[in-house]
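Ops channel
N.P.: pipeline sanity check, posting one input/output pair.
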């Protein structure tokens, strides 16, 4: 295995391990479900053995994600920029989840600076009830969206 391939296998393995732990699965539990020994899964997670495409798809599905998300690069400079902008809940080397990537994609599609600001106010309000008063100044549309979100 070349140096680049080994490094990529180690990186992918670390992502699989982190995703498995976030889901609260033990090494043995995931190994049993995908039909390999816990030693084999451990080799995947350490980057000793490469994960086939079919096995990666199987692991991703069981971890509630996609192979693309498992193969995504760490946030790197973008993550550092988010940290510098005050996103202190993120850690360097953290990975964006699929819904976070979708949220960013939709936000970037909004061309109007005013609408972008309105979206940010709404998100702040949803994340922090203290900001709810500021967001309520957006009027009835926002109140309707909040009511709909709070309804079962």
């Amino acid at each position: 295995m070349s140096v680049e391939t080994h490094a990529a296998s180690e990186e992918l393995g670390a992502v699989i391990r982190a995703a498995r732990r976030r889901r609260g699965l033990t090494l043995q539990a995931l190994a049993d479900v995908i039909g390999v020994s816990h030693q084999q899964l451990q080799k995947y997670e350490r980057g000793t053995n490469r994960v086939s495409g079919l096995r990666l798809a199987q692991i991703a599905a069981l971890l509630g994600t996609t192979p693309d998300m498992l193969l995504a690069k760490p946030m790197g400079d973008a993550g550092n920029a988010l940290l510098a902008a005050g996103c202190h809940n993120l850690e360097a080397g953290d990975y964006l989840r699929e819904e976070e990537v979708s949220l960013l994609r939709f936000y970037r599609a909004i061309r109007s600076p005013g609408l972008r600001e309105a979206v940010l106010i709404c998100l702040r309000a949803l994340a922090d009830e203290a900001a709810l008063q500021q967001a309520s100044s957006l009027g009835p549309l926002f109140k309707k969206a909040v009511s709909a979100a709070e309804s079962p």
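N.P.: looks fine end to end. The longest helix spans residues 3-22.
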